[in-house]
Amino acid sequence: VRVDAMPLTPGGKVDRHALPTPDLSRACASTEYVPPRTPTEEKLAEIIRGVLGVERVGVFDNFFELGGHSMMATQVVSRIREEFGVEVPLRTLFEHPTIEEITQEIALLQAENVGDEELEALLAELDDLSDEEARALLTSEDNAEGGASGDGHVGEDGSGNGKPKNALEAFLLDLWKEALGVDDLGVEDDFFAKGGDEEKAAKLVQRLEAEFQEKAPPGALLQAPTVTKFASFMAEYYPELVASRFGEVDATDDCAADRWKAVAAGPDVTEEHVTRIRQLVVPYKMDPEFTRRKNPPAVFVLSPPRSGSTLLRVMLAGSQRLFAPPEMDLLSFNTLRERKEFYENAGLWMWLEVVPQVLMEVHGCSLDEARQIEEAYLLQDLSTHDFYHRLQLDIGDRRLVDKTPSYSIDRNILERAEATFERPLYIHLTRHPYATIYSFVEAKLDEHFFKFEHTFTRRQLAELVWLVSHQNILAFLADVPDDRQLRVSYEDLVQQPEQEMRRIAEFLGVPFEDAMVNPYDGDGRMTQGLNRAGQMVGDFKFYLHRRIDPASATRWKKFHCRDFLSPLAKNVAAELGYELD
Fold first, then answer.
1. What is the largest CA-CA distance in the chain?
2. How far is residue 172's CA from residue 164's CA, in Å, rounded to a whole number?
3. Residue 288 CA from chain centroid, whole number
4. Low-confidence ranges of the chain (pLDDT < 70)
5. Which of 161, 229, 452, 485 could make a disulfide contact with 189, Cβ separation 3.0–4.6 Å?
C-alpha cells in the first residue's frame, strides 16, 4: 500500500493502527489483474467478491487461489442460480475456476434453454445488425435482466419467493431470516444465494438443533437450502417431531409429482446409448506386478450407486470380525498418488478424506498423524495393491470389506479384485431399477459419480449406469465359483434385516451380532466426516433415518408415473428377479 507519509504517534513512532489496511486478496493470485469486461463478468465478480470478502477479483483469477473452498463454491453456485437462472454443477467451478471460464459455462447453459426457433430468430436478427448495434442490444438486454428478480418466482404479495404454506415453513422462515439478517425472504429462496456463508450456516444449524433437540444430519443445509426443501425433509424423516409441535404436515419434498413427471418424460435409453457409454469408459489397466503376490482374502460389495450399499456397509461394520470403511476406491487406480491427483483435479474433496480417516481408525491416531502417514506413502509412490496389504496386516484377524459402487462400471476393475486377492468373496447387491434411477437423479450423481465426459441426460445416465454395472457384475460373477458369491436385494435387506444379515454372516463365515441390524446405534463405523460434523463418503440419506426403514423399499412408487426402462434394462431387471408390471 502506497502512502504519502507514515502516520506517527505523539511520541514520534510509526502509528501502526493508523496505517491503511492492505488488500491481501491478490496475495495468492498467479495472474495479473484484468477487470470484468462485460455485464455478466461484472455480476460474477460481484458474487465472488461477496463470497470471498475481497475488494476485487480479475477475470483470470483462480477462485481457489484467492482463498475459495468447497463451502464457498457452493455459495457461488447458489448465487449464480439466483442471478442467471441456470444450474451450474459444483464440479464445473472446480474445473473452470475463473470468471472468464464460468461466464462461458453460463452462456452454454443459457443457450441450451433457448428453443431452436427462438435461437434461429435471434441469430437472424443479430446477423442484420452492425457489431456496435449488436453489442448495444446485448448490453441493454443484460442490464434489463439485472433489474428483474432473476428467477421469476414471485410471492403472493408480489415480492420474495413465496409465502409459507404451513406452520413448520413459517417457523423455519423466521429462523432463516434471523440467520441471514434479512426481512425480505421467501420459502423458495436459497440460503446461500441470499448471503449465507459457512459461519451463518453453522449458527442456523445450531439454532435448529437447540429448537428441536435433535442433531442435524451433516451437510443438511447444503442438501436442503430452502425453507420448502428443509421443511419437506423434516416432515418426511422426522414426522413425529414435526407433528408434536406443528401438527400434521404433508411431505411434499422436491420429489413433487410435476418434477418427476418431467423426469420420466425425458428421452429414453436406446442400444446406441449403451454402446456409447461403453465406448466412453476408459478401461482400467492394471500393473501386472500386482499379480505376483496376492493379498489376503477380502469382501467386495458390488452394485451400482444408490443401491443401498452405504446402509449395507454400516450394517457389516457392526461385526467385530469385519473392517468395513467408507468407499476407498482403490481398485480403480494403481497408486495412491494417482488416486489423490484424480480427486484433487475433479474437486471431489470428500473422497480425499477417506484414506486419512481409515488410517485414524486403524492406528488410533490423530488426523495430523494420519496425514503424515499418508504423505509418507505418497512420497514412496505406494501402490494401491501394497496399501491394501498394509491395511490388511494392520486390521489383524478382521476381514476387509471394500464397498465402492464405481468399480462395477468397468469390468477390468472387477477382474483386478479376482486376480490380486486370495479367494475374495462377493456380495452382489441389487435394488429395483426405478428406485435406483430416481435416487440417482435426486442425488444429482451425474455431477461427481461418472468419471468421463458425456452428453446423456441425468435420467439416461442413471439408467445406463444401473444397466451397465449389472451387466458387468453378472458377466464377471459367471466365472466366479458359486460358493464365493451371494446376491442380496435391498428390498429384503430393509424389510427383513435380521434374516438377511444372518444369511450374509453365514456366507462370510462370521457370527451374527445384534449390532449388524442396528446400524444407527453407537459409533466406530466411520459414519461421520473427518471433522465429526461432516458427511462421510456415501449416501447422504443414511443420516435421515434413526432405524432401518422398510418403507424405503417402495417409496419410489409414490411418484412413478411412466415405465420408461429400455428393453435391455428390462431384461436385466427380469434376470435379477424384479417384476416391472
1. 90
2. 9
3. 33
4. 1-4, 10-17, 19-31, 70-71, 112-161, 216-219, 249-260, 522-524, 526-546, 581
5. 161
Cell of 24: 491481501
* Block residue for cell numbers 502512502: 3
Residues 255, 441: contact at Cβ < 8 Å?
no
Q: How many Å apart are CA 144 and CA 72, to the nearest integer?
A: 28
Radius of gyration of the chain (CA): 26
> What is the grid cell recorded at 484?
464365493
pLDDT value of residue 124: 55
Reduced DSSP (H G I as helix, E B as strand, rest coil) percent helix, strand, coil of the chain, to 5: 55, 5, 40
pLDDT tens-place string over residues 493-547: 999 999 999 999 999 999 999 999 988 876 667 666 665 445 555 555 555 556 7
pTM of this prediction? 0.67
Closest by Cα among 513, 469, 95, 472 to 305: 469
Contact 310, 483 (CB under 8 A): no
SS3 27: coil
Return the half-sphere exposure (C-beta side, CA atoms, 13 A cut-off) of residue 67: 12
Phi and psi angles of residue 255, each rounded to the nearest 5 degrees, phi first: -90, 35
Q: Given the C-alpha cell 486390521, which residue does it identify? A: 395
As given in the structure block, the three cell numbers for residue 21 are: 489496511
Is residue 140 classed as helix, strand or coil in its secondary structure?
A: helix
Listed in sequence order, the residues at least 6 apart from 229 whose beta carbon sits closer than 8 Å to its beta carbon are 223, 253, 254
pLDDT at 148: 38
CA distance 515 to 319: 7
What are the φ/ψ torsions at residue 463 (nearest 5 degrees)? -70, -40
CA distance 96 to 407: 27
Give the Cα separation of 33 and 53 in Å (integer).
Answer: 17
In contact, 361 and 325? CB cutoff 8 Å: yes
From 349, 405, 410, 433, select the one nearest 538 (Cα to Cα). Answer: 405
The amino acid sitting at 484 is R
Element (H, E) at 486: strand 485-489
